[in-house]
Amino acid sequence: MAAQSGSSVYDCIVIGAGIQGSFTAYHLSKHKRRTLLLEQFPLPHSRGSSHGQTRITRKAYPQEFYTKMMAECYQLWAELETESNTTLYRQTGLLLLGPEENPEFCSTWRSLVQNQVPCQYLMAQEIQQRFPGVCLQPGEAAFIDHTAGVLYADKALRAVQDLFCHFGGTIRDGEKVVDIKPGSVVTVTTTSGIYQAKSLVVAAGPWTNKLMASLGLQLPLQTLKINVCYWKEKVPGSYGVPQNFPCFLGFHLNKAQHHIYGLPSKEYPGLIKVCYHHGNEVDPDERDREAKTPGLQEIPILSDFISKYLPGLEAEPAVIEHCMYTNTPDENFILDRHPSFQNIIVGAGFSGHGFKLSPMVGKILCELSMGKAPDCDLQPFRIQRFQNHLKSAL
Ligand SMILES: Cc1cc2nc3c(=O)[nH]c(=O)nc-3n(C[C@H](O)[C@H](O)[C@H](O)COP(=O)(O)OP(=O)(O)OC[C@H]3O[C@@H](n4cnc5c(N)ncnc54)[C@H](O)[C@@H]3O)c2cc1C
Ligand SMILES: O=C(O)[C@@H]1CCCC=N1
Predict the structure, then answer these.
(1) Domains of the chain, with CATH numbers?
(2) Closest Cα partner for 97 from 262, 316, 294?
(3) Nearest residue CA, atom 13 of ligand 1?
(4) Fewest CB atoms less than 10 Å from the CB: which of 50, 109, 110, 146?
(5) Under DSSP, is residue 115 helix (H, G, I), strand (E, B) or coil?
């Protein structure tokens, strides 16, 4: 395979057509940069982290930097809806539930108030009146982020990719990147070709460290298999959007070690999605193999939660699908340049909460690859914060 001639060197190659790589490519092509988006699987696919019909969007975060970033994300999502002439967001509100004194619960409330996000603290009686399908225990409280809602994930991913092509970008799917040679011009070898670009963005989700190996870096990433569980309403429609049932996020309720979250019924009639915000570590290429050792058993945790907190649902999952998280130790993203190669940018570690923020993630990765300094403070997203965890792969 011969490399392309000098005249066909791209401005940027983006590896990975999940939501983060696709949004990066979209912003690059809007800036008139000649961009190639490479994806290992034929599109659309369900082997990574960006598939499925829905994701939660919210401004409610304990870290104010996410609450602030979300302000621009809402504008960019609206812009995408206009450009694609597609509805991608439905406002439902998000009900946040937690022990009254839980530090994360309290700092999330503070972040909403300090940033003047429309929100409301609810008394126990109000919760019962407004959400009769939700039963809190004594000492637990709730508040609503009114800005929150559902993003239509599959539709959004498709809209971003279609617009990228419309603005002049090229997607090559079914082409796995097998080698990266750094340099002032980066050379990328796939299973079917060799391409060159002035800069490279790696947005490979759970496969990030497999690609980083050829670039001498191993990031502290944990890839988790997530069971996406759907539960049947005992009375059809009782947890639906028409009944004003919101998305919800529970902070360590029922002594659960991780968050439990849910969305009103949408994907499957009569079923609502309720998931555990953690899973078992897995090699992304072997996601569907039977685990060799028994790990976290989250379905019984969810069943117990549902019987106590959402008693209008049957306490056995009706459908289970799969997805993957790529977690960093602090669950904040990695948005940075490769420490040794300034024209190679990494976007990774979205830790199960990156979809809503993808318009800003894409903008930041695009700016970094164009050699511009993003407006937003990148300190929380620097690779350097893991100095003690970094492994050289050389
Ligand atoms: C069950 C579940 C629920 C979630 N809920 C929410 C939510 O409610 N709200 C929210 O904001 N976020 C949520 N998230 C998180 C969000 O979906 C992810 O953060 C986001 O999709 C990550 O996107 P990505 O582009 O980084 O990864 P991916 O979507 O995995 O994209 C990476 C792509 O790179 C490709 N690739 C990898 N290696 C190569 C290679 N060598 N050559 C070519 N291509 C390659 C892969 O095939 C893949 O398509 C959820 C995630 C899951 C799994
Ligand atoms: O990011 C989100 O909003 C969801 C819900 C909380 C856990 C992860 N994803």
Answers:
(1) 6-50+154-218+330-383 (3.50.50.60), 94-146+222-327 (3.30.9.10)
(2) 262
(3) 353
(4) 110
(5) coil
